[in-house]
Specification:
Keywords: Hydrolase
Protein name: Phosphonatase-like hydrolase
Strand content: 5-15%
Shape: globular
InterPro entries: HAD-like_hydrolase_sf, HAD-like_sf, HAD-SF_hydro_IA, HAD_2, HAD_sf, PGP-like_dom2, PhnX-like
CATH class of the largest domain: Alpha Beta
GO molecular function, one term: phosphoglycolate phosphatase activity
Organism: Dyadobacter jiangsuensis
Strand order of the largest sheet: 5-4-1-6-7-8
Largest sheet: 6 strands, parallel
CATH superfamily of the largest domain: HAD superfamily/HAD-like
Structural class: alpha/beta
């Protein structure tokens, strides 16, 4: 039986027009690089953003922590400016799926590679409230190790009193989301095609399911508890 569903935010439950990754690309390329948006998504999607920057720079063989930290600080300033007046909406059917899961006794968790300030800003723009629309928000700020390490999932389990990770599912739009769920030992690690990575890219991380709409989670929870792809 599934007792907790952990959802990534941007690209999975939140639609912010990829402003974070567009801003990250601008911040990196300000330093004389020419990374494409596809490269940014391929290397950075789902990761804590300093880690994402280091991964992107690694594509050019650059292992300069000082440079990465300078870009990260600039990125935070640019992101704050980009968010002013930005319209943020939920991904299709997110609230409906949250409500359906909660009605079945499944705790709903949001997790993200953003820091808490950014994540809370997104939640507020949509109008979601902790304890009403979802049960728990865990961000990169709360844990020592970030995706693909499973610390955020374990943190949410502890907070919500979910002892058995085999009663947890993870949903995300990037390979690193799927890897996070698999590393945690979740019953299901599920990819969704609404965000950063294509179906082919998601399959590289060996998800249990790939869905195109969050509504497809409901029959998985209801009638496929013992199924695999």
């Amino acid at each position: 039986m599934i007792k907790m569903a952990v959802f990534d935010m941007a690209g999975t439950t939140v639609d912010e027009d990829n402003v974070v990754y567009k801003t990250l690309m601008r911040a990196v390329n300000e330093r004389g690089f020419d990374f494409t948006f596809d490269e940014i998504l391929a290397q950075g999607a789902g990761k804590e953003k300093l880690h994402a920057i280091k991964s992107v720079l690694g594509l050019r063989g650059i292992l300069d922590s000082t440079l990465a930290e300078e870009i990260f600080e600039r990125f935070l300033v640019m992101l704050e400016e980009a968010y002013k007046g930005l319209e943020v909406t939920e991904q299709p059917n997110a609230s409906k799926v949250f409500a359906a899961l909660k009605a079945k006794g499944v705790a709903v968790v949001l997790n993200t590679g953003y820091n808490r300030e950014t994540a809370e800003d997104l939640v507020q723009k949509i109008g979601w409230e902790e304890g009403v629309h979802f049960d728990c928000l865990v961000t990169a700020s709360e844990v020592e190790r970030n995706r693909p390490d499973p610390d955020m999932i374990f943190w949410a389990q502890k907070k919500l009193g979910i002892d058995n990770v085999s009663e947890v599912l993870k949903v995300g739009d990037s390979k690193v989301d799927i890897e996070e769920g698999r590393n945690a030992g979740c019953r299901f690690s599920i990819g969704v095609t609404t965000g950063a990575h294509t179906e082919a890219q998601l399959r590289e991380a060996s998800p249990d399911f790939i869905i195109d709409n969050l509504l497809e989670l409901i029959p998985i929870v209801e009638s496929r508890a013992d199924s695999m792809v």
